[in-house]
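Box 3.1 A note on notation
Throughout this textbook, protein chains are presented in two layers. The first layer is the amino acid sequence; the second is a token string describing backbone geometry. Keep the layers aligned when reading.
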Amino acid sequence: MQPLEESSIDEATVVNIHDQNLFLRDLICAQTKSLTSFFMRHVHSRENADDLTQEVFLRMVKRKGLEKLENPVGFMFRTATNLLTDDHRRRKARVHDLQVPYNDDDIVSEMPDQERYVLSEEIRNSLQCAFNELKPKQKEALSLHRFEGLTYSQIANRMGVSVSMVEKYISQALVICRKRLREFV
């Protein structure tokens, strides 16, 4: 058995590594919530937001000299923005790969045009009746989400309720609409 060689790391280096780890730990503790909220506004999925937050912190751990940056929080959010851009590009490429071009001539309906028109009118009328059955809060939440494209958190802010309440309103509204559409399926 050979004797252990003396370490080439001096005490100042050990102290510097320790200080760097403390700085990073404090930064992560202070910014996790705001960074996750930032991602939630853009990806609308807690799981994706948590993954992206973790990726930002991983990149920061790998970055040397982080404590010497003039604005480490700004650097962190710049990294987050870059990750969002990369994530958006990946998703867009994935969707593009899944799309299949088609020609309208390839779609043949067994139903004559007049029958399709009548059926679509019946479905529209049925949905209108279902929409009229909704309570005002359900109607507002569903309209803001489906017609104006707002997220649940944006709707919650506008309506002055919690996100879980918005989820409940929309869920209840969709149940009513689905009941009306059962006869067409």
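The mean pLDDT is 77. The two ends are 78 Å apart (CA to CA).
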